[in-house]
């Protein structure tokens, strides 16, 4: 339920009203799952502790900064990175909101846009996730091939033989 509500939330300009509505929806769903009905008094913070959840604002922030970092580490010619780095010049038209997505990110991070770009570039690009894949073998030996997925979508395969 929460993954559907927060799909691509890293690209949203999240206002207090949007945050409140999403948090209310998540809390209502959790209360329904746990069968906590109206006469029972159960605070939201206690509900989050029981389930192991956190405030929706923290979840949105984590996803937003993860998306920014991933996008800034992309190659220079890719469209999402170009759109993220695009800086339109001039003034906004009348009656347009003064706050933009980029301004909200700078305000949340408490850093300048160039500092955020530097921090994203400084992070390790190569992250490995091992998922063992089993291949058929004889009864004497089983061949295990762990696949290592790197951020650049290159796959390295290492082979080892395990004896019974």
Describe this protein with a few key phrases.
alpha+beta, four-stranded antiparallel β-sheet, 4 strands, elongated
Largest sheet: 4 strands, antiparallel
How many β-strand stretches?
A: 4
Global shape: elongated
Overall pLDDT metric: 75
Estimate nothing, just give the exact number of structural domains: 2
Our estimate of the beta-strand percent is 5-15%
- Order of H and E elements: HHHHHHHEEEE
Distance between the first and last residues' Cα: 44 Å
Secondary structure class reads: alpha+beta
Care to describe what's here?
The chain has 164 residues and is α+β, with helices and mostly antiparallel strands. It folds into two domains: 2-122, no CATH class; 130-163. The protein contains seven helices and four strands. Strands 1, 2, 3 and 4 form a four-stranded antiparallel β-sheet that branches. A hairpin with a 5-residue loop joins strand 2 (141-149) and strand 3. It starts with a helix and ends with a strand. Mean pLDDT is 75; it is low at 125-164.
Secondary-structure blueprint:
Layout (H helix, E strand, L loop, with lengths): L1 H4 L10 H19 L9 H8 L4 H17 L6 H7 L15 H9 L3 H10 L7 E5 L6 E9 L5 E3 L2 E4 L1
Antiparallel strand pairs: 1-2, 2-3, 2-4
Short description:
This protein is an alpha+beta fold.
């Amino acid at each position: 339920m929460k993954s559907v509500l927060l799909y691509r939330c890293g690209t949203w300009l999240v206002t207090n009203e949007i945050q409140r509505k999403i948090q209310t929806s998540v809390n209502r769903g959790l209360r329904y799952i746990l069968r906590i009905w109206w006469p029972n008094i159960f605070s939201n913070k206690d509900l989050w502790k029981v389930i192991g959840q956190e405030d929706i604002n923290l979840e949105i922030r984590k996803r937003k900064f993860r998306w920014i970092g991933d996008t800034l580490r992309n190659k220079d010619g890719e469209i999402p990175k170009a759109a993220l780095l695009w800086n339109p010049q001039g003034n906004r038209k009348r009656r347009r909101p003064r706050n933009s997505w980029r301004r909200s990110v700078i305000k949340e991070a408490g850093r300048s846009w160039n500092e955020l770009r530097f921090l994203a570039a400084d992070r390790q690009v190569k992250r490995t996730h091992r998922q063992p894949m089993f291949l058929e073998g004889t009864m004497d030996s089983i061949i295990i091939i762990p696949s290592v997925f790197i951020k650049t979508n290159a796959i390295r395969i290492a082979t080892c033989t395990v004896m019974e």
